[in-house]
Amino acid sequence: MKLISWNVNGIRAVHKKGTLTALVEKQKPDFLCLQETKAEQHQSEVDFPGYEEYWNSSTTKKGYAGTAIFSRETPENISFEFPNELAKKYDLGPDSFGNANAEGRVMALETELFYLVNVYTPNSKPDLGRLGLRYKAWDPAFLDYCKALEKEKPIIFCGDLNVAHTPDDLANPGPNEGEHGYTKEEREGIDNIIKAGFVDTFRHFTKGKGHYTWWSHFSNARERNVGWRIDYFFVSKKLLPHVKRSIILAEVTGSDHCPILLELDL
Fold first, then answer.
1. How far apart are CA 100 and CA 102, in angstroms?
2. What percent of the chain shows pLDDT beyond 90?
3. Of 87, 189, 252, 257, which alpha carbon lies 20 to 30 A from 121's?
4. Measuring CA to CA, which residue among 124, 15, 105 is closest to residue 65?
5. What is the domain-level CATH number for residue 176?
6. Active site residue 191
7. C-alpha neighbours within 13 Å on the C-beta side of residue 247
8. Mean pLDDT computed over 156-163
9. Can you tell me the distance from the alpha carbon of 195 to that of 105, in angstroms, rounded to the nearest whole number?
10. If you ran DSSP here, which 8-state letter would residue 11 be given?
11. pTM score over 0.70
């Protein structure tokens, strides 16, 4: 079983470049999870034969955020956003930037064997204006959500978490200490995910620097591989023996992010 996750930074734009279709045709994933689709389903010309499409688009800002899952199998269930009781518990209502629980950022697909959660975590913003939301509300709510689902079935969750976890996950950790995407608060969110028993599958296989999934458009950052690893596949420990590989498809262009791939022997 093969899964791909990719922040496409606009599904219509990446589709016009041809790289999304080429990726699907080459890899033939069982599940394709996309983030930052910036569109509603009817606005997209993407059509992959043999796949069912499930979209979670922002209801408050058109052309903003959004997630989608393309699946070769019909799920047992599909859900969108955090449950109302969880959003209320963590006060995930509107802030000065919008309503994070109405921006199409979370969707969960249930299969016979596991839950697949696709997430596009809110960016803390260059002025850290949304760091409080991340630290006090979003990250703990997301972890609670995954733990609740895991009580029923093992979890696979993937997406753009908008944080580099360790110094090995970005090219220049020193100058970026305390900047959005590399604050101690954001990194603590990943620490808590790992403490809860979820496994960063890429780091299970690969250690060290130089492995990134996002690059700035400035100063030829991608060509020089001056990047950040902010896209992840996590799994429940119960699934870890079934994980065959977890890799970064850095050669795939079309977005400022590249896709990541997880393969299991389920």
1. 5
2. 96
3. 252
4. 105
5. 3.60.10.10
6. no
7. 10
8. 98
9. 23
10. H
11. yes
Q: Which of 46, 18, 42, 26 is nearest to 34 (CA)?
A: 46
d(CA 198, CA 239): 10
The two structure tokens encoding residue 14: 């990446």
| Half-sphere exposure (Cβ direction) of 194: Cα atoms closer than 13 Å | 12
Residue 173 is part of which domain span?
2-264
Residue 256 clears pLDDT 90, i.e. is over it: yes
Instruction: Please give the order of strands across the beta sheet that includes 77-80.
Output: 77-80, 106-110, 115-120, 155-160, 231-236, 198-200
pLDDT at 93: 82
Planar angle of CA 178, 181, 187, nearest 5 degrees: 80
Please count the structural domains in the chain: 1
What is d(CA 133, CA 139) in angstroms, rounded to the nearest whole number? 8
Residue of 120, 182, 212, 232 marked active site: 120
Mean pLDDT on 114-128: 97
Compute the residue count for the chain. Answer: 266
Tokens of 188: 């603590």
Average pLDDT over every residue of 115-123: 98
Tell me if residue 182 is catalytic. no
pLDDT in tens, 221-252: 999 999 999 999 999 999 999 999 999 999 99
Examine the pLDDT at 192 and tell me if it is beyond 90: yes
The average pLDDT across 166-176 equals 98
Containing H/E element for 116? Answer: strand 115-120
Strand partners, 73: none
Catalytic residue among 139, 160, 169, 200: 160
